[in-house]
Amino acid sequence: MNVQLIPLQSHGDSRGSLVSLETHKNIPFDIKRVYYIFDTEKNVERGFHAHKDLKQLAIVVSGSCRFRLDDGKERISVYLDNPSQGLYIDSCIWREMYDFSKDCVLVVLASNHYDEADYIRDYEQFTRYVDESSSK
Ligand code: T46
Would 18 be classed as within a structural domain? Predict the structure, then answer.
């Protein structure tokens, strides 16, 4: 599955820690957009979609949450609770986010601007899209 946990170097000293995110240095795409998710409830689940082209890197800068990731063949779960680690998610991966801690702040770097046409929000349509793409 084209997902990867990327270690992000933390520059720490007695004053605290600092992580820098730079296009094509530790982020494998041009960063065109940044958004963040916060004020989440423990029992709420988000996502339930895939992207046709968009690549993203998700970092939990506070608290924790879990991702369910599915490429149409296998399904894995990833726990994020470390601001020095980014979860890279390639295009064509179904994602569901859940088990948010109350203090969770999830920052997401994206390879493109917001475009609803890039979303596949129906799971059956997603598996059809994966099958069609792999037979091309
Ligand atoms: C993803 C996961 C990890 C915007 O107006 N601009 C934006 O850049 C984004 C990301 C969203 N929105 C609007 C669209 C919806 O009206 O914000 C609202 C909530 O978006 P959505 O329901 O898609 O949120 P999530 O948490 O289900 O998914 C988001 C991203 O949309 C998605 O790309 O991979 O986080």
Answer: no
Q: Which range marks the domain in which residue 130 is found? A: 3-7+26-134
pTM of whole model > 0.90?
Answer: yes
Instruction: Express each pLDDT in 30-50 by its tens digit.
Output: 999 999 999 998 899 999 999
- Residue 59 β-bridge partners: 107
Categorize the per-residue pLDDT at 113 as very low, low, confident or very high, splitting at 50, 70 and 90: very high
Closest residue (by CA) to atom 8 of ligand 1? 114
- Residue 42 has what DSSP assignment? T
Whether 14 maps to a domain, the answer reads: no
Instruction: Give the C-alpha distances (Å, rounded to integers) separating 4 from 54, 87, 90, 114, 121.
Output: 15, 6, 9, 23, 23
Q: Which amino acid is at 6?
A: I
**Ligand 1 center to 19 CA (angstroms):** 24
Closest residue to atom 23 of ligand 1, CA basis: 47
CA distance 131 to 64: 33
Residue 20 lies in a domain: no
Task: Give me the helices (H) in the chain, please.
Answer: 123-134
* Ligand 1 atom at shortest distance from the alpha carbon of 33: 8
